[in-house]
């Protein structure tokens, strides 16, 4: 029987304690980092399109602001829970410190599958969440960002609702990152996380004196981070042999034409075996090898590839 995945919060606290002991860190520092400074839990009532009312649960955990305002994404996902958000907020504190930027760490989320909502319902939910958070967020307090299943459109709704609630306040557009360019968003923001992952990989391979050309890569998760990583890595010479979304994965040993696959995904909304677009030579195409294999997410994780990129939610890799 498979083991139950370890809670992200348990993973964080046990790792923190182990590293703290190895570094001979002050126990008081470890104790402070083990707990968030503030936990906000809210119930979010939303009127559905049919006139009924549904209530969802939302969280914002503000872990530490010693280095500056809290900073971290908001995710919409059915598996969102408080322990997960606590752990993610703590990791944001450490990430901000590692790259030496003047922010602390926070994270937020709503326990919801956004695909079950219409656009109007999703907007009502987004605005109601910001209303519930009230004065706990802001440009000098706590600056949310996109995360799993949230994007520039949702950040625009957040920003507009925040501006409505804080009419006359200064720098309201600075209350959120990841906004559309028309609202003061940053160029390159969509690709930034995937691009950063590629930069780290290239630097690692450089230190190992390994050539990245034609290295095989499997990417679990073809959302914003995974799709950008796959597109940029393909341009850099890697051979992306498999990608996945929540419904399954596509695999072809010759590699996938990631740009065509991405455009097809934008049109159809999901990965489609019939529009796999493998990168084939003339000889391969003539040998009837154009069809991709439809595999599970678990099978993708077990492929014999040079590089595995887990770009989905946490707890995907374990010993069972």
Please give the structural blueprint.
Blueprint: H1 8-23, H2 27-34, E1 38-47, E2 53-64, E3 70-77, H3 82-98, E4 105-111, H4 119-133, E5 142-146, H5 152-165, H6 189-207, E6 216-220, H7 224-235, E7 239-245, E8 248-251, H8 258-268, H9 282-286, E9 293-295, H10 297-301, E10 307-310
Parallel strand pairs: 3-4, 3-5, 6-7, 6-10
Antiparallel strand pairs: 1-2, 2-4, 7-8, 8-9
Polypeptide structure, described:
- By secondary structure, this protein is of the alpha/beta class.
- Helices cover 38% and strands 20% of the residues.
- It is built from ten helices and ten strands.
- It has helices spanning 8-23, 27-34, 82-98, 119-133, 152-165, 189-207, 224-235, 258-268, 282-286, 297-301; strands spanning 38-47, 53-64, 70-77, 105-111, 142-146, 216-220, 239-245, 248-251, 293-295, 307-310.
- The strands form two sheets. Strands 1-2-4-3-5 form a five-stranded mixed sheet. Strands 9-8-7-6-10 form a five-stranded mixed sheet.
- Helix 7 links the parallel strand 6 and strand 7.
- The longest helix has 19 residues, at 189-207.
- It is globular.
- It starts with 7 loop residues before the first helix and ends in a 10-residue tail after the last strand.
- The mean pLDDT is 91.
């Amino acid at each position: 029987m498979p083991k139950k995945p370890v809670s992200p919060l348990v993973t964080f606290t046990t790792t923190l304690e182990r590293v703290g002991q190895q570094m001979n860190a002050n126990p008081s520092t470890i104790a402070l980092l083990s707990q968030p400074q503030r936990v906000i839990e809210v119930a979010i009532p939303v009127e559905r399109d049919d006139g009924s009312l549904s209530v969802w649960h939302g969280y914002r955990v503000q872990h530490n602001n010693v280095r500056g305002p809290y900073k971290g994404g908001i995710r919409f996902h059915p598996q969102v829970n408080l322990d997960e958000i606590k752990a993610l907020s703590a990791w944001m504190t450490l990430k901000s410190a590692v790259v030496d930027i003047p922010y602390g760490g926070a994270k937020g989320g709503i326990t919801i599958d956004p695909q079950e909502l219409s656009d109007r319902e999703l907007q009502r939910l987004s605005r109601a969440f910001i209303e519930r958070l009230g004065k706990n967020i802001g440009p000098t307090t706590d600056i949310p960002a996109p995360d799993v299943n949230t994007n520039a459109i949702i950040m625009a709704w957040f920003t507009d609702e925040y501006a409505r609630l804080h009419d006359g306040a200064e720098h309201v557009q600075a209350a959120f990152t990841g906004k559309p360019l028309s609202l003061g968003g940053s160029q390159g923001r969509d690709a930034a996380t995937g691009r950063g992952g590629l930069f780290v990989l290239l630097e690692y391979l450089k230190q190992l004196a390994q050539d990245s050309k034609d290295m095989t890569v499997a990417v679990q998760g073809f959302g914003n981070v995974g799709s950008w990583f796959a597109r940029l890595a393909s341009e850099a010479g890697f051979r992306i042999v498999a990608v996945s979304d929540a419904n399954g994965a596509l695999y072809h040993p010759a590699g996938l034409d990631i740009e065509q696959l991405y455009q097809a995904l934008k049109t159809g909304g999901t990965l489609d075996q019939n529009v796999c677009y493998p990168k084939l030579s003339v000889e391969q195409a003539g040998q009837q090898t154009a069809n991709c294999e439809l595999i599970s997410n678990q099978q993708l994780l077990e492929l014999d590839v040079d590089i595995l990129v887990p770009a989905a939610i946490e707890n995907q890799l374990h010993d069972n």
